[in-house]
Amino acid sequence: MTQAYNVSPIGFMRSCFKEKFAIPRQPQLAPAARGVLELVAPFDQGDAVQGLEQVSHVWLLFLFHQALEDKPRLKVRPPRLGGNQSMGVFATRATHRPNGIGQSVVKLDKVEAGRLWLSGIDLLDGTPVLDVKPYVPYADVIVDARNSMAAAAPAMIPVQWADAALAQAREHAMRLEEPLIELIEQCLAQDPRPAYQTPTPERRYGAQFWDLDVRWHYPQPGVIWVLEVVPAAVS
Ligand code: SAM
């Protein structure tokens, strides 16, 4: 019988992303996506992070806690391929995978005892984090690396604002002390809509960033228009 191992979180992510929809597909795609890794005991002491201030980026190993499944899949349909082509699970970064483990290189902005301030994240709020490791450029940068299936970052589409939505976003950015306009633009420019959907101008889309509901539509194919940025309904 295969040996099973237990792992337990060293902390939990407090993230700008409150739902899976509209989170970038990889880290670094939205530099304005920020969050704090709250370490739990015994790792919430200065000793555990001593020396980390010498490091600009870290690897996070975490659990896709909102995509865990009992039955392992061998093939998945990555959104990157339009969701209609299946691939071996080990050829993709799909969230549905054996052991549900994700990995992301993120920017380390500030270190405190018990807290790491991070940006460029692609983790949902509440994500259990299993480990943190320093990014080591001489070993982790592979200049001649190749991935023909995901050769470049997703194409960007223009994001435009209704005047009222931009005013709302400015006000909430000041309140939150966060680069909210950049966050919304960077995430929506990657066009979170499933590739198989052709949106009509009437159709409204929405996602929660921080404590805000952001709503948008597609006035024409390939253009996003932000309609409003309003306090999220309390669930
Ligand atoms: N960079 C990681 C990796 O390669 O393992 C994640 C890649 S995965 C394709 C990115 C997606 O994971 C995001 O778009 C988001 O919707 C989803 N995600 C992030 N945190 C999650 C969580 N805790 N549970 C389930 N899905 C999550």
UniProtKB/TrEMBL annotation:
Domain called TsaA-like: residue spans: 7-144
InterPro entries per the UniProt record, alphabetical: TrmO-like_N, TrmO_C, UPF0066_cons_site, YaeB-like, YaeB-like_sf, YaeB_N_sf
SUPFAM superfamilies xrefs: YaeB-like
PROSITE patterns to which the protein is assigned, alphabetical: TSAA_1, TSAA_2
Molecular function GO terms recorded: tRNA (L-threonylcarbamoyladenosine(37)-C2) methyltransferase activity
Keywords: Methyltransferase, S-adenosyl-L-methionine, Transferase
BP terms from Gene Ontology: methylation
Pfam family membership, one: TrmO_N
Family: Belongs to the tRNA methyltransferase O family.
Designated name of the protein: tRNA-Thr(GGU) m(6)t(6)A37 methyltransferase TsaA
Species per Swiss-Prot/TrEMBL record: Pseudomonas graminis
